Amino acid sequence: PIGKMWFRVLGFVISLDALALGLNAVCRGFRRLTMHPACWQDHDITIQEHHIRGATVRGEIGWGRAFGLLPALRCARTLRVAGFADAAFRARIMLPLRTACHVLSSRVILLETSFCDRFAGGNVDLPSPRRLSAARRPGRPKGGGILIGVGPIPPVQRKGCRGFGVLIEDLNPGERLDIGVTSLSPYEQFLVRASSTHRHVAFAEDLLSSWIIESSGLLVGSHAGLRIRDSRWNARLLNAGDRVDLVVTPNGCLELAVNGDA
């Protein structure tokens, strides 16, 4: 009886801030408050896999507790979808989430692709809850600076192409920047495949099913014999304020551009 009583008491939480800190406090009105849009106003919200587990999806429509909360999130700043162990399920829920965000609010920004915080390198900081910016920790040894996106590379304006961009805010002299793509999600890389191969992943080229352009212009990857160098690319010449864009063409080519110049 005592255990049941405390279970009921601790089932109420006083605020979102308390939740974020892992604190349990008492407030009978918490459930009602979470359904009020002002409770989420200007917050950055992250949807984890366990938040939406059990949801039913049919085309553009989704049912479940997580979808029932979406109307209350219409005043949030961003709605970020984290990485899922079940990549196929994550892909299925994106369409109903896009539809809900379009119907409920033109204000909230749906972040389908961001940095994966669970499997980021040990020498990397992700200071923003939106997981769109990253910084290398000063004074750390080489390696351990891997960043992987939580979702597929988004389409770009060019027909059939996909791509992403990186804005350099600060780059120390001699710092290297390797950039590329992989066909495996972070969970497949570090939980499924790594456990069977006992790999230690320190650099991007250590990833499975990857194609990486190193700072020196050397194309490397997980495929045996893949070593191609293009002397036109030298990432050590990049400066703060430069934007690096990588595009994957329909025939599998990787194209790099700095500030729009290929």
What do these coordinates show?
The protein is an alpha+beta fold and 262 residues long. The longest helix is centred in the middle third of the chain and has 18 residues, at 87-104. Strand 4 (78-81), helix 5 and strand 5 (109-111) form a beta-alpha-beta unit. The strands form five sheets. Strands 9-10-11-12 form a four-stranded antiparallel sheet, with no helix packed on it. Strands 1-4-5 form a three-stranded parallel sheet, covered by helices on one side. A three-stranded antiparallel sheet has the order 8-13-14, with no helix packed on it. It contains six helices and 14 strands. The termini are far apart. It is globular and about 60 Å long.
- As residue ranges, the low-confidence spans are none
Helix content: 10-25%
Q: Which shape, going by the Cα principal axes?
A: globular
Counting DSSP E segments of at least 2 residues, the number of strands comes to: 14
The helix-and-strand class reads: alpha+beta
- Helices and strands, in N-to-C order? HHHEEEHEHEEEEEHEEEEE
Distance between the termini: 69 Å
Write the layout of secondary structure elements.
Blueprint: H1 2-9, H2 16-20, H3 30-34, E1 44-47, E2 56-58, E3 61-63, H4 65-69, E4 78-81, H5 87-104, E5 109-111, E6 124-125, E7 135-136, E8 162-167, E9 179-182, H6 186-197, E10 210-213, E11 218-221, E12 228-229, E13 243-248, E14 254-258
Main attributes of the structure:
3-stranded parallel β-sheet, alpha+beta, 262 residues, globular, 20% helix, 14 strands, 6 helices, 4-stranded antiparallel β-sheet
Short summary of the structure?
This protein has helices at 2-9, 16-20, 30-34, 65-69, 87-104, 186-197, and strands at 44-47, 56-58, 61-63, 78-81, 109-111, 124-125, 135-136, 162-167, 179-182, 210-213, 218-221, 228-229, 243-248, 254-258. It has 262 residues and is of the alpha+beta class. It has a four-stranded antiparallel β-sheet with strand order 9-10-11-12, with no helix packed on it. It has a three-stranded parallel β-sheet with strand order 1-4-5, with helices on one face.
